[in-house]
From TrEMBL:
GO terms for cellular component: membrane. Residues 1-71 form the CRAL-TRIO domain. This is Alpha-tocopherol transfer protein-like. It comes from the Eukaryota. One of its GO terms (molecular function) is phosphatidylinositol bisphosphate binding.
Length: 126
């Protein structure tokens, strides 16, 4: 992954992961660099080990913290409210019956970063 992503990760923390996850990780671990493998933390249901890495006031109540809980309802509502956006964007790209790639509308073309995914809306033309 080195050089392929514009962020620097200090660690990946997994909480309440299923047991099958350990088997999958054991199969993948030989292919990871030691540095990356050392940055993977599996806490399971041991929230004390999670609290050793994160202050409790930054964790939601579900993880033993004092920050407000998060159930995902707001994200689900936003995604459902944006269903028309996703339906519109699913019309573009390669399809077997179109024989090629369809161009997205001007309002959805990247403006600042070539190849970036755009979630802009508007009627302005480029």
């Amino acid at each position: 992954m080195k050089g392929s992503f514009p962020l620097r990760f200090k660690g990946f923390h997994f909480v309440f992961e299923p047991r099958v996850f350990y088997w999958a990780f054991a199969a993948v671990k030989p292919f990871l660099s030691k540095k990356l493998a050392d940055r993977l933390y599996f806490h399971g249901s041991n929230l004390k080990s999670l609290h050793a890495h994160f202050p409790r006031d930054s964790l939601p109540a579900q993880l033993g913290g004092s920050a407000p809980g998060y159930g995902g309802e707001e994200l689900a509502r936003q995604l459902l409210d944006s269903e028309h956006y996703f339906a519109e964007h699913n019309r573009y790209g390669y399809t077997a019956d179109s024989g090629g790639v369809a161009e997205p509308p001007a309002a959805c073309r990247p403006r600042y970063y070539p190849g970036a995914f755009c979630m802009q809306s508007g009627d302005e033309d480029d």
